[in-house]
Amino acid sequence: MQYRFRIMKHSERNASRFRTASYFAVPAVLWLSAATTMAQEAGEGVEQETETRYSVLYLEPAVPVSEATDFELPPPETPQSPELDHEFEERMQNIQRFNEAIADSEILSGAWDNSLVEQLSSLGSLQHRQGDYLAAIETHERAIHVQRINSGLHTIEQAPLVEQMIDSYVSMGDWTQVDVYQNYLFYIQQKFYGNYDPRLIPALGDFANWHTRAFTLQQGESLAMRLSSAQMLFKAAARMVEVHFGPEDERYLEYLRGVARTAYLVARNQDLLRELARAQFRAPQETLRDMLYWHFPIVPTGFRSGEDALLAIRQYYLERDSEAEQLAEATAQVADWYLLFSRRTAARDMYREAWQVLAEEENADELRRQLFGQVREIPVFAFDNSEWMIENMSFMGDAEEVDYDFVDLEFDVTRWGEVRNVETVSAMAPVTDSQHGWVRRNVRDSLFRPVLVDGDTARADGNRFRYRYWY
Questions:
Q1: Dihedral pair phi/psi, residue 424, rounded to 5°
Q2: Is pLDDT at 1 greater than 60 in this prediction?
Q3: How far apart are CA 281 and CA 298, in angstroms?
Q4: Confidence check: pLDDT of 41 > 50
Q5: pLDDT at residue 7 above 60?
Q6: Element at 377 (helix H, strand E)
Q7: CB atoms within 10 A of CB 130
Q8: Gap between the Cα atoms of 222 and 358, Å rounded
Q9: Were 393 and a residue from 5, 346, 361, 362 both cysteine, which residue would form a disulfide, CB within 3.0 to 4.6 Å?
């Protein structure tokens, strides 16, 4: 069976390579367009006797390292061939039994008997685990059809079957079909529950997360619609949790962080928002807005939405008997947000508040060292979904093989979080020059939470981080 991606240990490359995705960047998910040219500059016109390195596709969050201790980054979670699973043969036998049982049921009760749904669902799950995704999709499609004949077109009972189809399409990397069925799943959930039923809350959050991921994957005719949809859905989910269950519900903070993530993406991609003025994009957003109980603006906002969400998270910890470090971190994230938008006075004041929050703790010095003794790339919430990206590497386009490597960088960070004097401190070779250069440029353009000394931001020189990148 052929898989969308497999990890190679620094060996030969496929001769045919993929197109480079169009450029946009967030700290944990860095795409590029011009880097294809940059990656070839070092070797242009020179016959290469060693392996060919291609442009960087993805940059993972950095890990701090020290000069005294070397270490290996833990290997990423990557898909494993089902044939390597010791239960593979057992599942094959179970698939055969289910096929026989389904054939017997069809003879006894007909092809549309409701009892077939459970058998088909189990069969499709086994086929998915075997890596036979097309067969799993066909089986689940049939189960949905039987379910709809017996229970109605919009029955909520088909939702788990749709979710299993989505999982199979994700495993195949067929993002167009993932999008189709994500929309269909939300449609039947909203149709069944209505706009104000609290049972709709998980559906709002899941659909918002899909739009955020689809934006990161650059899937869809309009990326602006992705941001608009995600922000409206996260806001609706947070508001419904607050109204129905109160802000004590743990999902409240989760959805507020979702609002902050979309706000950051909006702020970084303001040029995309012009798309929403076009009728073919504006109309679907107005339809989604009208489906929600609260009518949020269809044009998403950056600074203000992020500030409101992060202040609400901070207020949550202020009003409860929370751990001091939780409140300090929430306050620091507000300060980070101000720093991202060059509001230095507000950022400095919030950092001082975060420092002071820990003053009454017995281990105040240690807590302050842990939170503010090391520079940290911001916004920290931008990294929440990076594991999902690693697990779904089929965003690599036409690549059949991808590889990864790492580079250690040392740089200074000013008291306002700006990166200066970036140098590569790990071993270099001509084949890695252009890739390391690309990583350096992206790090140079990023912002970090500065260290705090006696509550004030301070310059920190000689910060060393390890970056793993995929190419």
A1: -85, 130
A2: no
A3: 10
A4: no
A5: no
A6: strand 376-378
A7: 20
A8: 45
A9: 5
